From TrEMBL, chain A:
Protein name, as recorded: Phosphate transport system permease protein PstA
GO molecular function: phosphate transmembrane transporter activity
Organism ancestry: Bacteria, Bacillati, Actinomycetota, Actinomycetes, Micromonosporales
Keyword tags: Cell membrane, Membrane, Phosphate transport, Transmembrane, Transmembrane helix, Transport
Membrane-protein topology: Multi-pass membrane protein
Keyword Membrane assigned: yes
Organism: Micromonospora craterilacus
Length: 304, 329
């Protein structure tokens, strides 16, 4: 940087020509090719997203109306009209119940990993297994809950679906919350301890509030993912055509399961309902995602 | 602490304010318990599913894995439950997905870390995040009603052009409908791209600045810098990312169940309908009883074992790659 001799002098002094024109044609070509390929890859990712959004919005808005959101599901795929109210109620209740179970447990698990276990062998094992658990297929989780809950209580319920979704959310909440707890500066903990607070009190009243915005946004993203899970719902909640707000008794249903069942029907009425349900589901999932992002960016200062 | 022992009064108030040692112990045990929940759930999944699947394993023996016939309700004789056709479908659709997704994901990750102008980086990350946020059933819906019918002429063209070529011909066989291995692979590719991209991108961003600058200072073009400095450093991480994508593709259920066509089939023809282990479970679970249910749960056991194995391997590889990176910085 201190040497500021202009390039012309250096070339004149017999140094190598460093201008772009001096690159051999083959090298310039391969560089160009790679750059084009990278841009093409980005474009390839944009195309399906644009197409799927376009189709869902166009076809979904065709059937969207207030009655679609509030009416019962017709008990024949063939019949036109009707709505998705039972599935909307089911999705909100089942996902909400799953969040109620998974988020507190996940946050406490994260507290163990970051405040107590740290780098101990057990904590490392739990961390690894939490990552592995995020990779367990949702269908396997559905089968697991079917065996260990549905067979036990003797009927398919909305709560069984909530249990399955909670199992899917738990590792995601643990890992994202742990990341957030790790960002809390140690000085806060030391200051609290120096004032005489016990570790549990320090953790609950100082560390957790400092990380709460990050934990909330991470948890909301997990909720958004869980709201779109289909396979476990299909297996463990059964199906209903009228809203069932009791999670513990009787069958239930959810938007993803309705999309799945209606999409494979040859009848246009069913397919229309599937598109409408897909639009509703995407709006719900996007809503969670956007709120999560807003919380994360709005209160990010606390995570410094 | 030494101060408090001198006056019993202040000691007790301090202890009250901070809570007792017992509360501390209870809290730490409680958090440990929630942490152990992860291990408990994984253990319980293994135990309960193996126990419930046992009748099928018992009836079929090792043939459960080597038999290609799946006939729950035969006209005569015992039901036959062979997972091989579905295992083949899982492997083939995941392989197609990776063939498409890996180059694209690496490309996007390079774009984000090396190439993107600052103002394009944010939107590009948003695209990937949104792609990950779309529920898989929506991709399935789009796949079965839009993509599959639209691709039939394309498949037909491939069959017409390459169908006669000796080896390629067996891959591009007869097209019966748009619902086949290939469509499933394409839909899966879209779904695993975000996960492979995000991990590869993390790994790329750990490549030391000095290495990249050194390559550029030696006169390397950007592509030569990527090949010489970025790829060698991140090879392990890329392998791990690809394996995580593989695990995700193998376990994906609903989208595949919608677009793969649903037939028990082992064929090289990419345009033939097939089925995967995950898809079979969700399609047939509701109508099954007894040993039939046990056999479907058995498919779940195989799927669980394979995805856990792949995920553990992938995590270990990614961790090792990241640890090495941190050491070299």
């Amino acid at each position: 940087m201190t040497v500021t001799a202009p390039p012309t002098t250096r070339a004149g002094a017999g140094g190598p020509d460093l201008t772009r024109a001096a690159l051999s044609g083959r090298r310039r070509f391969s560089n160009h090719l790679a750059t084009t390929a990278i841009w093409a890859a980005v474009l390839l990712a944009v195309i399906p997203l644009a197409l799927v959004t376009y189709e869902v919005v166009i076809k979904g808005s065709g059937v969207m109306s207030l009655s679609f959101l509030t009416e019962d599901i017709p008990n024949s795929y063939r019949r036109e009209g009707g709505g998705m109210a039972p599935a909307i109620v089911g999705t909100l209740l089942i996902t909400g119940m799953a969040a109620l179970m998974a988020i507190p447990l996940g946050v406490f698990g994260a507290i163990y990993l970051n405040e107590y276990g740290k780098q101990s062998p057990l904590a490392r094992l739990i961390r690894l297994m939490a990552d592995v658990m995020t990779g367990v297929p949702s269908i396997v989780m559905g089968v697991f809950i079917y065996i260990s809950w549905v067979l036990l209580v003797g009927q398919q319920t909305g709560f069984a679906g909530a249990l399955a979704l909670a199992c899917l959310m738990l590792p995601v909440v643990i890992r994202s919350s742990e990341e957030m707890l790790r960002l809390v500066p140690d000085e806060l903990r030391q200051a609290s301890m120096a004032l005489g607070a016990r570790k549990w009190k320090t953790t609950l009243t100082v560390v957790l509030p400092a990380a709460i915005s990050g934990i909330t946004s991470g948890s909301l993203l997990a909720v958004a993912r869980a709201a779109g899970e289909t396979a476990p719902i299909v297996i463990v909640t059964g199906i209903v055509f009228a809203p069932n707000s009791n999670l513990f008794d009787g069958f239930n249903t959810a938007l993803p399961a309705q999309i799945f069942r209606n999409a494979s029907q040859p009848f246009e009425a069913a397919q229309d309902r599937a598109w409408g349900a897909a639009l509703t589901l995407i709006v719900i999932v996007l809503g969670f995602t956007i709120i999560a992002r807003l919380i994360a960016s709005r209160f990010a200062i606390k995570e410094r | 602490m030494t101060l408090t022992t001198k006056s019993p009064d202040s000691r007790s108030t301090l202890a009250q304010r901070g809570g007792s040692a017992r509360a501390d112990r209870i809290f730490s045990w409680w958090t440990l318990g929630t942490g152990l929940l992860v291990l408990a759930v994984l253990g319980l999944i293994l135990i309960t599913t193996v126990r419930e699947a046992w009748p099928a394993f018992d009836a079929m023996g090792p043939r459960f894995l080597t038999e290609r016939i799946w006939d729950p309700n035969p006209a005569t004789g015992d039901a036959i439950f062979g997972a091989l056709s579905f295992a083949y479908g899982t492997a083939l659709s995941s392989l197609i997905a990776l063939l498409f997704a890996v180059p694209v994901s690496i490309g996007i990750a390079l774009f984000l870390t090396e190439l993107a102008p600052r103002r394009l980086r944010g939107p590009a990350v948003t695209v990937i995040d949104l792609l990950a946020a779309v529920p898989s059933v929506v991709f399935g819906l789009w796949g079965i009603l839009v993509v599959a019918p639209a691709l039939v002429p394309v498949y037909q063209w491939f069959h017409d052009v390459f169908g006669g070529v000796p080896v390629l011909g067996s891959l591009f066989g007869q097209v019966s409908s748009g619902r086949n291995f290939m469509t499933a692979g394409i839909i899966l590719a879209i779904m695993v791209t975000p996960i492979i991209t995000s991990i590869t991108r993390e790994v790329f961003s750990t490549v030391p600045r000095a290495d990249k600058d050194a390559a550029l200072a030696l006169g390397a073009t950007r592509w030569e810098m990527i090949r010489g400095a970025v790829f060698p450093h991140s090879f392990g991480g890329i392998v791990g990312a690809v394996m995580l994508g593989l695990g995700r593709a193998m376990g994906e259920t609903i989208a595949v169940a919608l677009v793969i066509g649903g037939s028990t089939n082992i064929t090289a023809n990419l345009f033939a309908p097939g089925n995967t282990m995950a898809a079979v479970i969700v399609q047939q679970f509701g109508e099954s009883t007894g040993t039939y249910t046990a056999a479907l749960i058995g498919l779940g056991v195989v799927l669980f074992a394979m995805t856990v194995l792949i995920n553990v391997l992938a995590q270990v590889i990614v961790r090792r790659a990241e640890a090495r990176m941190k050491g070299s910085r």
